[in-house]
Amino acid sequence: MPVDFSGTWNLVSNDNFEGYMVALGIDFATRKIAKMLKPQKVIKQDGDMLSIHTTSTFRDYMLQFKIGEEFEEDNKGLDNRKCKSLVTWDNDKLVCVQIGEKKNRGWTHWLEGDDLHLELRCENQVCRQVFKRA
Ligand code: YOG
Fold this sequence. Notes:
transport, Lipocln_cytosolic_FA-bd_dom, Lipocalin, 10-stranded antiparallel β-sheet
């Protein structure tokens, strides 16, 4: 049975979010606000179709895609850089590669016990986030 990421998840830890934001070129004032946030993720997984809605009191970001199919991502409200994104399975991990101006950009989601993990990568920076079910 495939892993099911569906659910509502609350951020409980956020390691090196600052480094990740600096690598993305997010300005100081925005970083100051962003690092105070405790975003929530609402994930809906239906076969190969996924939607990941990241919400916060400051900004929201919505991503919808089909696993294995490349799509255009606009990163609106984040760094606003367009990239070509592809999400695939690596065993039980969901791996996204974001091809664009920034090298080595992407993320990986996986489940560990009752927790949802997310690794966000950009250039030489790695941010590690952990979420718990709401
Ligand atoms: O998740 O790509 O789950 O899209 C990363 C923020 C902060 C805005 C959030 C708003 C990167 C200001 C999305 C935070 C920093 C800072 C809540 C992570 C950029 C701007 C939206 C992400 C994937 C995987 C799905």
